[in-house]
Design a protein that fits this description.
With 170 residues, the protein is α+β, with helices and mostly antiparallel strands. The protein is built from one helix and eight strands, in the order αββββββββ. Strands 1-2-3-4-5-6-7-8 form an eight-stranded antiparallel beta sheet, with no helix packed on it. A hairpin with a 5-residue loop joins strand 4 and strand 5. The termini are far apart.
């Protein structure tokens, strides 16, 4: 006698994974529907995770030795005008910021950093690049601003600012 061909059982493994082109005769229709539902749920979950993975890998801009210029163009004009310029040092820290208006400097801020890497002084200049005043900062144990001391151009203390961080429990 000739051997009898078996039903295509190879299409189903122990985990009940089913090839779409081959449905074994021994599988009941309800089992097939359950397996297809599992497949669709896994596929949908995988597709939902793809955008989330992309959002987590978004990189910050490398600000090392970066200069950012902001240009405005008035309606009816084709000539762009420099509005703002920010300069970062080799460590990626902001060191200079200039605001422009009517093709000239409105104000300028220069930043100095302490050994801890935080801004220690912020120097403010007028439209003629003359020192108007400066600010000194102190930080708390969490690295947040604790105190700000505002001085005039001659180094006389004008005002102080206290930073308080109040967390409200939900």
């Amino acid at each position: 006698m000739a051997p009898v061909a078996a039903a295509p059982v190879a299409a189903v493994d122990a985990g009940r994974n089913v090839r779409a082109d081959v449905i074994p005769n021994e599988m009941k229709e309800s089992e097939y529907i359950i397996d297809m539902k599992r497949f669709i749920i896994i596929l949908a979950a995988s597709l939902l995770l793809i955008p989330a993975a992309g959002a987590q890998t978004q990189q910050k801009i490398n600000k090392k030795n970066l200069v950012i210029e902001e240009w405005n163009t008035r309606t009816g004009s084709t000539k762009p005008v420099l509005d703002h310029k920010t300069t970062y040092n080799a460590d990626g820290k902001k060191v200079d910021e200039v605001e422009y208006g009517d093709n000239r400097q409105k104000w300028r801020k220069r930043y100095e950093y302490g050994a801890d890497g935080k801004v220690s002084r912020e120097l403010v200049y007028d439209e003629h690049n003359r020192l108007v005043g400066f600010k000194k900062f102190e930080y708390n144990e969490f690295g947040r601003k604790k105190m700000q001391y505002n001085y005039d151009a001659k180094g006389r203390l004008q005002t102080t600012k206290v930073y308080k961080y109040i967390a409200e429990d939900a």
